[in-house]
Amino acid sequence: MIGFLDVSKSYAAGGQTRCIINKFSQLFDPYDRVGILAAPGSGKSILLGMLCGLETPSSGSIVRQGLVWPIGHCGPLHPGMTGEANVRSVAAFLGLDADEIAIYCQLFSELGDDFHMPLRFYSGSMRARLGFALSMALPVTTFVSDEMVSTGDAGFRSKCDAALQQRLTHAGLILFTRNPQTAQRLCSRHGLLQDGRIEMCATAQGAATRFAGQTSEFSAIVDLMAGLETI
Description:
Oligomer: single chain
Number of strands: 9
Strand content: 25-35%
Low-confidence stretches: 217-231
Strand order of the largest sheet: 5-6-7-3-8-9
Distance between the termini: 52 Å
Structural class: alpha/beta
Number of helices: 7
Largest sheet: 6 strands, mixed
Shape: globular
């Protein structure tokens, strides 16, 4: 299983404590494909970080089964090391065949000789390509993502989409997104993040309808605040 057991998470900001999630429990099968619609500022990045171990809960437990990996994640990559050395290091840490991982990443990323250049010289696009290639190379049990499901130009995005679809025949996905179409295309279960809780819905359309209402209310509040500032 993967998910939250009686999890709370809060942090200090601007001299105040903000509660992102409070005593929340939700478990998924590691091979579920779950699309969670979430508005900006709703805490989706923090929830995702807890699922893959980049954030720790204030209380409660995170349940993980197998290898949980954020799509396109470049966090463990060192800027002073080459692309090749970085992916070999990740492979060695996970006990995988470093040659196999390196060959896959070089071919998939289409970086050519730049694969042997230190990451500090990479553009943002080059880092994104390498990060996505590494995600697809690893034997992931459950992918997690905050919006990202592809990268690069149209041709490379199509390549990313095809690779991810193929991987999802044997892996799960927990996707936090603002795009109902993306969630419907990639996921078979649907919900939304609201008031620090993941509310599951019976259908993709049901989740999209509730999310539309949630975001329209958010937009109305923003418009109201903007009007007050001009008075």
